[in-house]
Amino acid sequence: MSAPATLDAAASELVLAHLAVVGYQVSEVLPRVPTSVTRDDLSSAGFLALVLAARSYDASTGVPFARYAALRVRGAILDELRSMDWASRGARARAREMGSTVDRLTVALGRTPTRDEVAAAMGADAATVDQARADLERRVLSLDVPGSPVAEVLPDAAPTPEEVALTRERLVWMRAAVDELPERLRVVVEGVFFDDRSPAELAEELGVTPSRISQLRTEALALLRDGINTGLDPELVPEPARPDGVAERRRQRYFAAVAERAMGVGSVRTPA
User: Fold this and answer.
1) End-to-end Cα spacing for the chain
2) Cα separation of 138 and 10, whole Å?
3) Tens-digit pLDDT profile for the chain (272 aa)?
4) Which of 15, 43, 19 is closest to 29 using CA atoms?
5) CA 69 to CA 51: how far, in whole Å?
6) What are the backbone angles phi and psi of residue 78, rounded to the nearest 5°?
7) pTM for this entry
8) Cα pseudo-dihedral 55, 59, 65, 67, rounded to 10
9) Smallest Cα–Cα separation from 134: which of 95, 80, 104?
10) How far apart are CA 220 and CA 225, in angstroms?
11) Which residues contact 201 (CB under 8 A, 6 or more apart)?
């Protein structure tokens, strides 16, 4: 049986509740890759994997979703890194040569060789060594958790092109929903889930208590869920208790702004 075209309510809740998994995995990997790789590059792959994980998760396996999602997200980030062609064949050869030369000189000298010593041993100038060093730093080593390679833990459930397209559409709506949150709610969501900031730090910035940050987080996640579902799964949006109330009118303006941004019609931020 093929996977459903959209996320059900339970899967949507899993995604929203585990956004921090993506931020954590990206933060773990980012310091170990070249500066040419941006957080957005890795986050996009991670968010896609998180949504796919929510769609395919089977609670009967006994594996906690946080663990399952972390493996899927980490694997997607690694795949994204491996797909990047950072250097030509010649550059890779120079990088390997320099690495071997440094190792050999380190053993011979009993210390780390200088750039000039490496250049002399390679029969090259300092600029060539600098370039080779930069190329060497771009080599991506395996970042899989020792003893827990992703391939041994996860089933082979590669999404179809249609599923990928549908998932990417949901990510567009998710990003639009975050961007259009009222200012304070957006700061809390981006701080907690994207920037790994602590509630205490956010509380100090916003001039509120840490418990208020928790309340704002809960409010923001509920608004995000309904904002995404309004465009993609409207039947999952609960009926308002007071359809003509001020709060509901604000929600409707937010939903409209999310739709405009997601569909590329406009980018008007919802006032706080």
Assistant:
1) 44
2) 40
3) 333 345 677 787 888 888 888 888 888 888 777 776 778 778 888 888 888 888 888 888 788 888 888 888 888 888 777 766 555 556 666 777 777 787 778 877 778 888 888 888 888 888 887 877 766 555 444 444 444 333 333 344 445 555 566 667 777 888 888 889 999 999 998 888 777 788 889 999 999 998 999 899 889 888 888 888 888 778 878 888 888 888 889 999 999 998 888 887 444 444 44
4) 43
5) 9
6) -65, -40
7) 0.49
8) -120
9) 95
10) 9
11) 191
Q: In the structure encoding, which two tokens stand for residue 196, read together?
A: 């790994």
- Phi (first) and psi of residue 96, to 5 degrees: -65, -40
Structure token digits, residue 28: 């773990």
Two tokens at 180? 């259009």
> Given the structure tokens 């923001």, which residue do they identify?
220
Q: Which residue has the tokens 């701080």?
A: 191
> Please, are residues 46 and 86 in contact by the beta-carbon 8 Å criterion?
no
Block residue for tokens 């968010």: 47
Give the chain's radius of gyration (CA, Å): 23
Which residue type is seen at 192?
V
CB atoms within 10 A of CB 261: 22
**Residues 100/136, Cβ–Cβ less than 8 Å:** no
